[in-house]
């Protein structure tokens, strides 16, 4: 797959456009990419609950309507929890940006192709589930433009990013799940 979006580019853009946003990445590559670029209290790093990250993002968006919530989902994770998208579409929180980082592979198990490599189109699913805005990007300039547009006019948005497969190693230290949860809860309560 030819694409010019890098994981470092995604991390830099999300953190730049949403400096006070609550970021929820799915387990594996998206969590590792964020942690390798420096941990932040406003990021809830997932090491389990595959398929649930967008549902966790929905809960955050509904309980913290004054905060922007950015979900960094993976294609394998999204496919495992696709039912949550219909609930997100029905609730339609405007402060939720659902970003799908689609590398068309099961990253945690060796890079086997997911169904997005076989023609399943999550953007069409998002539209059918009632997401207000559905966009795609295959380069970093387009990705940034869509994120900046969302920041200007927030409404429930699904942003489908096509990326190449990259096996990002876990951070050098094993994560501290209790510490991550505690820091993130404190950041959620912070007035920004």
Walkthrough of the structure:
The strands form two sheets. This protein has a five-stranded parallel beta sheet, with helices on both faces. A two-stranded antiparallel ribbon has the order 4-5. The protein has one domain (7-189): Rossmann fold, CATH 3.40.50.970. β6 (133-137), α7 (140-152) and β7 (157-162) form a beta-alpha-beta unit. α1 packs parallel to α7. The radius of gyration is 15 Å and the shape is globular. Helices cover 41% and strands 17% of the residues. It contains eight helices and seven strands. The protein is α/β, with parallel strands linked by helices and 192 residues long. The longest helix has 13 residues, at 140-152.
Could you give the topology of this structure?
Blueprint: H1 7-17, E1 22-25, H2 29-36, H3 53-63, E2 69-74, H4 75-80, H5 83-91, E3 96-102, E4 105-106, E5 112-113, H6 122-128, E6 133-137, H7 140-152, E7 157-162, H8 177-189
Helix pairs in contact: 1-7
Question: What are the salient characteristics of this protein?
Answer:
192 residues, 5-stranded parallel beta sheet, two-stranded antiparallel sheet, 7 strands, 17% strand
The class by helix and strand makeup works out as: alpha/beta
**Might you state the CATH topology name?**
Rossmann fold
* Count of runs of 4 or more consecutive helical residues: 8
Helix and strand run: HEHHEHHEEEHEHEH
* Name of the CATH class: Alpha Beta
Question: What portion of residues belong to β-strands?
Answer: 15-25%
- Low-pLDDT ranges: none
For the sheet with most strands, the description reads: 5 strands, parallel
Strand order of the largest sheet: 1-2-3-7-6
Find the CATH superfamily.
Thiamin diphosphate (ThDP)-binding fold, Pyr/PP domains
> How would the global form be characterised?
globular
Radius of gyration: 15 Å
What is the CA-CA span between the terminal residues? 39 Å
CATH architecture assignment: 3-Layer(aba) Sandwich
- Overall number of structural domains: 1
Number of strands: 7
Q: In percent, how helical is the residue content?
A: 40-55%
| Average predicted local confidence, pLDDT | 87
